[in-house]
Amino acid sequence: MITLRDVSKTYRTDKVETLALKDIDLHVARGEFVAMMGPSGCGKSTLLNLIGLLDRPGRGTVEIDGVPVARQGDRDLARLRNRAFGFIFQSFHLIPDLRVIDNVELPLLYRTMRGGERRRLARAALEKVGLGARMEHYPNQLSGGQQQRVAIARAIVGQPQILLADEPTGNLDSRMGAEVIDILQRLNDEGTTIVMVTHDEAEARRVGRIVRLFDGQLVQPEHAHAA
Amino acid sequence: MLRNYLLTAYKVFMRRKLFTAINLGCIVLTLVVLMVITALLQSTFWPDGVEGKSDRFLQVYGMRSESADGKSTSTTLLGFKTIDKYLKPLPGVERVSAFTIPNTVSVYQGDRVSQLDLRRVDADYWKILDFRLLAGRLPDENDDRLGRLVAVVNASTARRLFPQAAAVGRSISVGGQTFTIVGVVADVIHVNAYADMWTPLTTFPSTDYQKDLTGGFAAMLLARSPADLPRIRREVERSAATFVGADPRTYSVTHFWGDSKLDVFARTLLDRHSVPDSGAAQLLLTIGGAMLLFMLLPALNLVNLNMGRILERSTEIGVRKAYGATSLQLAGQLVVENVVLCLAGGLLGLACARLVLWWLEASQLIPYLAVGINLPVFGCGMLLALVFGLLSGVVPAWKMSRLDPVHALKGTA
Questions:
Q1: Average pLDDT over residues A85-105
Q2: Which residues of A touch B (CB under 8 A)?
């Protein structure tokens, strides 16, 4: 499903060159739930951004379903992001000016779809995360946990094959964090591939596989853990 | 999608009310100036009301005579004889009117003297122009034929001369002649219609004017339909080619042209009396360019404000990109938001422009000014707002749509 070959990424400014990732080889199979762990600044988010096609590697290739994405233009990448991926961010990144239902509809805006159908799918996604009664609310009227569930609904509304979650429980207390992981686990059970960045060892141990990074390199590549 | 864009736009604008108000104020101020100019231009060159038939008539204002070597030129108004001999016989013209340009005269009422602008006009003048008659009647062919000393005054003049009573039936003395006022018409400002007082041509103290090829006259040629105008223009040009002046040795070539209102203005302004093209297109382009330039400065200011506003929303831009928005779609969204604001500014601007025009009318800075906001002006106003929206929205929208999503999501763009 996701294959990274010999991927490196360097960030350059006028004076400083920072090697964020070095020689990463990683394969994530369809239906896997992968947790990425490592200390701050080790390149976890960079790796997630490369997988999610939000960034391009300096060297190496990223393949989605066997298709290299290096040469794809803005439009094709946007289309692929829209169809294949759902993103969950640590800070939720909901649009504060839009109601919950409008936030959830957002990925569908970039597809050819009638408003009624969009609304139906958004409603279904919100029901799935247990927020069917909060559709008309605005994000600031919800708790952190509820906001993250809205973000999950937004991530899954387009029925993507892959969910990319960047510390989805980072801003939540343990109870709400556990709820979020439960939802992700359920989605994975239904066949969605999930790659999640986390600092929480216990959380990571609940998922299928842990990938550890240190100084931009994989230290335990492809090492399986029991759930 | 549009609903989502508009909803977001509304919320974003309402989130920073002061900022939005400043934006809106800047837009409204610019558009008011441009809309007032547009309304004045529209009313001058494509009027309704008294000169509402201007899409059907041509005017001949002035003639240019040149020596063979082009070194000597003479630009004058037409004489009555030129109109009578070269324009009245033109085929396929419904009416030809000869009239003088306004001339300031002293009007005596006992020991009181008033300065008025007087036109002498023929009976066709009243049939080509649609004056609104407020009292009495308009002069006709009989008045012309019999040289009756009758006069028409406008409403302001009637009030000025006879503040206590009706003007119709009263007499006034002008240049030793005593005129009876037979009609009162509404005040008007337009080029052919403007005057305080009108009398028949035949009330000239002598008939010498009938022999003059040059003088103080202009002519209006009314076509049966607007489609006839190009043909009549050609006829006028042909007729001018046959013109024989009083001094053919000095001036061997004479030009006069059948012009629209805009043509008359452009020809005079650009001094294009010797060529068929009045330069109207050039003039319109210059006006359009000047308006665009006038918009540019506030547009640049708005670009700056927009950059700040959009930058605040970099996270939203990042999220939209992550979820599949292309740069083009994002640019479209941000442009739509700005255009919505500018259209709202346009509507407000129209209302303010109407107030400014009321003030202009009431102040009498331009006598008898009456300018409305009609459908074409409304359309132009909205077009101006749209152009302003695009001018000030496209650059920041495009720049912001190119944001790197990773940086945008971090809010470090």
A1: 92
A2: 49, 52, 54-55, 74-75, 78-79, 81-83, 85, 87, 89, 93, 95, 97-98, 102, 105-107, 109-111, 115, 154, 158
pLDDT at A220: 59
Render pLDDT for A165-203 as a digit per residue (tens, 0 to 9): 999 988 888 888 888 899 999 999 999 999 999 988 888
Q: Same domain, yes or no, for B44 and B68?
A: no
Interface test with B, best of A51, A54, A102 (most B CBs within 10 A): A54
Residue A214 has pLDDT above 80, yes or no: yes
Q: What is the extent of the structural domain holding B145?
A: 62-258
- B370 belongs to a structural domain: yes
Nearest to B329 among A49, A87, A110 (CB): A110
Residue at B115 is within a domain: yes
Mean pLDDT confidence for A144-151: 93
Show the domains of chain A with their CATH numbers.
2-218 (3.40.50.300)
| Amino acid making up residue B141 | E
Domain tally for chain B? 2
Q: Are residues B313 and B405 in the same domain?
A: yes
> What is the rounded distance in angstroms from the CA atom of residue B129 to the CA atom of residue B46?
14
Flag if B321 and A115 touch (Cβ within 8 Å): no
Helix, strand and coil percent figures for chain A, each rounded to 5: 35, 25, 35
Residues B234 and B296 placed together within one structural domain of the fold: no
Q: What is the model's pLDDT at position A71?
A: 83
Say if residues A174 and A13 touch (Cβ distance below 8 Å).
no
**Chain B neighbors of A109, CB-CB under 8 A:** 1, 4, 325
Cα-flanking dihedrals φ and ψ of residue B77, to 5°?
-80, 165
Task: Determine the pLDDT at residue A112.
Answer: 87
Do A95 and B316 count as a contact with CB atoms less than 8 A apart?
yes
Longest dimension (CA), chain B: 91
Residue B266 and residue B282 in contact, taking contact as beta carbons nearer than 8 Å: yes
pLDDT at A212 over 50: yes
Backbone φ, ψ for residue B298 (5° rounding):
-65, -30
Shared domain check, B139 and B197? yes
Burial of B244 (0-12, 13-18, 19+ CB in 10 A): exposed
Q: Average pLDDT per run of 10 along chain B, which is 413 residues long?
A: 77 81 86 89 88 93 90 92 96 95 92 93 96 96 94 96 93 93 94 95 93 95 95 95 88 93 94 92 93 86 82 88 91 87 88 92 84 83 85 86 85 62
Closest CA–CA distance from residue A72 to any residue of chain B (Å):
13
